[in-house]
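[recover] target loaded
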């Protein structure tokens, strides 16, 4: 079995197209999307339309949920930009996505979520530390997983940080990274995080000889064109982040 795992596209149509093209060369059985489809000042409606047309299995990210259940004064500016670009029906489609899905396998082998199985705003594998993001403790990960630690594989996103770890009870935890948003231009603390790069990230989960493994993939794409789109629309911090992978 080979499963392509994407997450956190954030309206970056160019990065998504590059990832989808690469996936076609890798003989996968299916694709799953871990949420946050469109929130960003790039191509929100076009990104929604492409993902909806392809019918890719998807869980709901926090930004997808906010598409209908947050007032403007509680929305990040880029989230408001994306929401305003969508039709009411498209917003409702995002909000109606499930919080978790069992992707494949017998007996619930693989569980997909955005943040943790119970909280789309909580990173599963990371936590804040002295103004930066750091790996979470083993105890914290176990608490966040709860009974789902008995799964063979947990797929998560939200942090935009690509990772593959063995978690509680030997479960494999995979974060494919972000397709279209390597850092967080709207979050000042992100300027103090580790160095990142502008690549479009995703992963291929594979089962061979009854063992799960993954390829963590970072693709080149025309990130200068994505940065130009953000700059043209009046989002210079996003332009810097897209072109360099860092907020500053």
């Amino acid at each position: 079995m080979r499963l392509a795992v994407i997450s956190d596209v954030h309206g970056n149509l160019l990065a998504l197209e590059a990832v989808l093209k690469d996936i076609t060369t890798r003989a996968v059985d299916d694709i799953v999307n871990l949420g946050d489809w469109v929130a960003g000042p790039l191509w929100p409606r076009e990104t929604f339309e492409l993902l909806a047309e392809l019918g890719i299995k998807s869980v709901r990210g926090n930004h997808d949920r906010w598409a209908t259940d947050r007032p403007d004064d509680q929305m990040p500016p880029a989230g408001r930009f994306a929401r305003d670009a969508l039709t009411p029906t498209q917003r409702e489609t995002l909000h109606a996505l499930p919080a978790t899905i069992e992707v494949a396998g017998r007996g619930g082998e693989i569980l997909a979520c955005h943040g943790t199985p119970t909280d789309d705003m909580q990173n599963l594998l990371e936590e804040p530390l002295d103004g930066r993001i750091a790996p979470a403790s083993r105890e914290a990960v176990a608490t966040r997983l709860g009974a789902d630690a008995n799964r063979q594989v947990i797929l998560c996103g939200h942090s935009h940080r690509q990772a593959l770890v063995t978690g509680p009870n030997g479960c494999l935890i995979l974060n494919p990274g972000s397709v279209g948003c390597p850092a967080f231009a709207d979050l000042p603390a992100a300027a103090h995080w580790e160095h990142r790069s502008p690549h479009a990230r995703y992963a291929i989960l594979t089962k061979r000889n009854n063992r799960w493994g993954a390829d963590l993939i970072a693709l080149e794409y025309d990130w200068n064109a994505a940065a130009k789109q953000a700059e043209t629309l009046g989002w210079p911090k996003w332009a810097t982040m897209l072109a360099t992978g860092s907020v500053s």
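[recover] notes: Residues 29 and 157 are 21 Å apart (CA to CA).
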